[in-house]
Amino acid sequence: MNYLWTVCPKCSCEVTIQFDETAGGPSGSLRRWSRDRAINDGRKLETSKGEVAADGSFRAACVCGEMLPVEPARVTRATTERPPA
Prior knowledge:
Elements lengths: L1 E6 L6 E9 L2 E9 L6 E7 L11 E4 L5 E4 L5 E2 L8
């Protein structure tokens, strides 16, 4: 699972984008919440392979409609593998 934490410049909400790389392109979800927690919602993330740039970057739509850049250098990659003992 890949994660990106950011702030939406349009709605000022904190946003997390969680996705896996699939054969068809990045797929996952986007969650947003306001600092006062009055807003807490999300949406499904599906990006076609054709929308992914050569460097692996793509854009994801916030619930408010703002397009947020997802750049590989800012993505945290989670793993289920145990570290060596």
